[in-house]
Amino acid sequence: MIAIYRFLALMFAFSALANCGVVYRGSKWEADVFERRGLRARQASSSSSSSSSSSASSSSSSASSSSGSSDVPAFQYGTADPNYPGVQATGPNGDTNPDEPSLNTPINQTSVARLASLNSVDDWCTFGPLDNTQTLGDVEDRTVAWCTKPRNNARVIPDGTVTAAHFVKTPLYVQVMARGDFTKIGFQEGDTGGELDPHGATGKGNPVGGNVTSNVTGKDVFYEEWMNYVGSTIMCFRICIAGSDEAPPKTECQHTLDEMGCWNIMPGNYEDNMFETCDADAAYPPGIYVSDGSTSSFQQYATGIWTDNGQIKTYTNGVSTQTTPTTAMSTPSSSNCQTVSTIANGIKSIIPTSSSSSASGSSGSSKGGAAAASSSGSSGDSSSGSSSDSSHNGGVASVRPAMVPAMVAAAAVLLGSLVL
Ligand SMILES: *[C@@H]1O[C@H](CO)[C@@H](O)[C@H](O)[C@H]1NC(C)=O
Ligand SMILES: *[C@@H]1O[C@H](CO)[C@@H](O)[C@H](O)[C@H]1NC(C)=O
Ligand SMILES: *[C@@H]1O[C@H](CO)[C@@H](O)[C@H](O)[C@H]1NC(C)=O
Questions:
Q1: Exposure of 130 by Cβ count < 10 A (0-12 exposed, 13-18 middle, 19+ buried)?
Q2: What 3-state class would DSSP assign to 238?
Q3: Do the Cβ atoms of 187 and 193 come closer than 8 Å?
Q4: CB of 297 closer than 8 Å to CB of 268
Q5: Domain that holds residue 67
Q6: Does the keyword Signal apply (predicted)?
Q7: How far is the CA of 225 from the centre of ligand 1 (A)?
Q8: What residues pair up with 177 in beta bridges, in sequence order?
Q9: Total domains in the fold of the chain
Q10: What is the pTM of this model?
């Protein structure tokens, strides 16, 4: 009985928190867990196992991977297993999705299909708004798939929208990092965007019915854990395709740090006007920082109450004056990079959704893209961020005031259940 209650409470808390983008773990507890699972980076000599790390001097990584310190050892995650529990999807596909991903489906720019595929530098999708009447943060649960090719019954991203795309395959995930004018796919100008993931308030995904596939293993596979951060000028999308005890898919695709933006959550090459495909090492899980042999984790600031055997207690995650990290732990080494001059589907007749310069309700400050671009030029400085806990720095939305009560309640339930 109690076990069931705790389970339900956990599920509720996780889904509500996932939706609100708040980190749910106490740092001590989290550090211990990561410690136990061996996430602590070994200060091993870097000439070890990873086959791609020796190619760190490939042109693409040296061109852009200047964030994070170069002397950080690569993340040691054990053996990446494509059949690790929680990697492949087991639940039902979304109601508005085709049963299987496929190319050359009819073009329908009012489609509400929500099946996103990440297959290659010129065959990928992002979630995005239905139209540009609202910011992404207001419509996350209703976003739809926009794809570079006509596929999955989804909407097609018109040629000329994407100005850079970097496709990276690692042992634990595939990732696309893109730049462009996403006002052509429903974003308002200056929209710093938001974060899509498979959990959301209902547990059915954000968007509800959002699902993902990749065929990098040689066949189309539906995966369970993913994260997609996108705003009007930048997008990043990671699908976890394998796992290990050190890097379960929920950890490697941990998507709740939504103040941090693409560059931090999904480190890699965000250089504009460049289209490339690379192999890469897997990045440290989002928010995990290793220094002098000890592991710490960043968590967004939040306070609230929880009930311990009928007693009301308060908790604080993080500190109100904390600095949100502005660089990732490290930028993974990449190798085997192949560039193409551009990507295009050649379809002339796609009519973009009207790209409004008169959009209201958006700040006009394009922190998302700017943050990614400028941090790629700074080297290894993880302490130069704003000291305000309400600042955001990239491709992402804030925790909106309306969400706070739900989030606090959810955190309270979760913390309660952890302690009980
Ligand atoms: C679709 O997404 C839901 C919500 O994240 C998930 O539970 C389910 O396993 C996914 N199904 C497929 C086929 O990907
Ligand atoms: C396009 O998708 C919308 C939403 O699913 C649907 O109502 C409409 O009938 C579709 N149009 C065509 C031509 O299939
Ligand atoms: C993935 O799908 C694309 C398009 O359908 C195809 O061109 C490519 O060869 C596939 N990749 C693999 C590894 O099967």
A1: middle
A2: strand
A3: yes
A4: no
A5: 23-398
A6: yes
A7: 9
A8: 166, 236
A9: 1
A10: 0.70
Angle between helices 404-419 and 2-20 (to 10 degrees): 140
Pocket of ligand 1 (CB under 6 A): 89-94, 198, 204-205, 211, 222, 224
Q: Which atom, in ligand 1's list, is nearest to the CA of 94?
A: 1
Is 121 part of any domain?
A: yes
Q: Which residues of the chain register pLDDT less than 50?
A: 1-69, 354-420
Please give the distance, rounded to the nearest whole angstrom, from the Cα atom of residue 81 to the centre of ligand 3.
21
| Peptide bond just before 207 cis, omega within 30 deg | yes
Smallest CA-to-CA distance from 398 within 108, 5, 8, 20 is with 20
Q: Which of 95, 97, 107, 108 to probe ligand 2 with, by most ligand atoms within 8 A of CB? A: 108
Q: Is residue 413 part of a domain?
A: no
How many other C-beta atoms lie within 10 A of the C-beta of residue 308? 12
Closest protein CA for atom 4 of ligand 2: 111
- Let me know if residue 2 belongs to a domain: no
Best probe residue, ligand 1, of 93, 99, 202, 206 (max atoms within 8 Å of C-beta) = 93
pLDDT digits (tens, 9 = 90+) for 362-388: 333 333 322 332 233 222 233 333 222
In a domain, 212, yes or no: yes
3-state secondary structure of 166: strand
